[in-house]
């Protein structure tokens, strides 16, 4: 299997003038001026930047990319690999709500080099403060010395993918060149049908795993092109996403479930006029739970623009498996199954009858070039089809470890082989994967992961008068929302109880540190938060009481 990086030279040699990456800069001009980078330019400019990097980094050193999404971001990733370094896709300082996360992640990866762009160079220099060499990607004044990169090894680490959720203890997933090549191959063979040409249109941040794979890596394998634009431009006018997809004969895109709902909410009368989405063969929906109602609304509202229901593709994946684990192939309408809610809660996926309460789950399809098992998380034994357990994954796309961190719970043993323990709950029915929940209480809100213990610590730091705290997610109008329950501390009754100020401080701290808006904050009396038999806070119990509406509030979050 040819490493992805080696393919770039092939495309540069066989079709140097063909478009590789196009960036539509709505932030510079609402009209959307475009900048095109051909395969020849990608190869040439990446080599020049790699030459500069080699003066300040050694093979195996980390190179942090502190820049906004754009062509220079793509070139920085390529150049890091050409230089034999480990790329760390991050973002420019100053991104709202991400300051502490960036500082913690930067310290964890400890880069020898940093790549940014001229517009952010001053801020990056201030942030780095002399700890690493800073290179400006768009200062393309390096002469060609004739140096050419060698081949990379499949076991060499290509990049560190940091979780979007944890700021206290950042975990960088080591993705090797072998992992990357394997996963992009799995994705392309399953989801594109190995079309000879297709165009990706994406706005996802390039420091997110799905954005990096869909926008950067897929074109590397296929020699096709991608059209990119900034996430902020999508948030301002999501119809731009649809307009860039319109009229393309073979196009694909990818986004989390919340983005499809957000796009629909922001559509205005006349936005669909003149749009032709019939050429979009793949709308990948992943990175968070896929909602049946979202699929129905999106296909119904965009049907007048030619959207084909069979092009909607629910998928499952996670950073520890590079990104992609399971998904239906092309031309396969989403499968939605109504299961008996009570029996599903008891661990058995049984189809609902006419008189039973039901939970409608969306199939994420069969595993793609890898193995998936559903395992009893307590005994470690494999469960049969139709039983709910922890999802385990085994394949060439699975990471070896976290960067500089031992996590004995990351892997389990099945038949003498090492399997990734995802922490997600699900079931296999007819060879297809249905995800039912999260074993480890991970919050996934608006496409981002948040570890509850991190949020809980932030709450307690923001309000010393609070004691036991639980953070969890609830489903509101088809979307996961974050809720915090916190009791007044018995040991800090001397601290003045000011509920209004506590609510303000907690909401502000959680937003600033985690970029997370709380749907609700319940302030309870001392001792009200339920605990397990071992004395730990029961998030499950807190969530159940919240859904039942039985919390007696010590103060109102108004």
Automatic annotation (TrEMBL):
From which organism does this entry originate?
Answer: Paractinoplanes rishiriensis
Q: Name one GO biological process term.
A: fatty acid biosynthetic process
Q: Where is the AMP-binding enzyme C-terminal domain?
A: 441-552
- Report the transmembrane regions from the record: none
Q: What protein name is recorded for this chain?
A: Acyl-CoA synthetase
According to the entry, every stretch annotated as the AMP-dependent synthetase/ligase domain falls at 11-403
Pfam families per record: AMP-binding, AMP-dom_DIP2-like
Record-linked Gene3D superfamilies: 3.30.300.30, N-terminal domain of ligase-like (3.40.50.12780)
**Which keywords accompany this UniProt record?**
Fatty acid metabolism, Ligase, Lipid metabolism
Q: Which domain of life is it from?
A: Bacteria
A single MF term (Gene Ontology):
adenylyltransferase activity
Please give the InterPro entries that the UniProt record associates with this protein. AMP-bd_C, AMP-bd_C_sf, AMP-dep_synth/lig_dom, ANL_N_sf, FAAL/FAAC
Task: State the GO CC annotations.
Answer: plasma membrane
Family listed: Belongs to the ATP-dependent AMP-binding enzyme family.
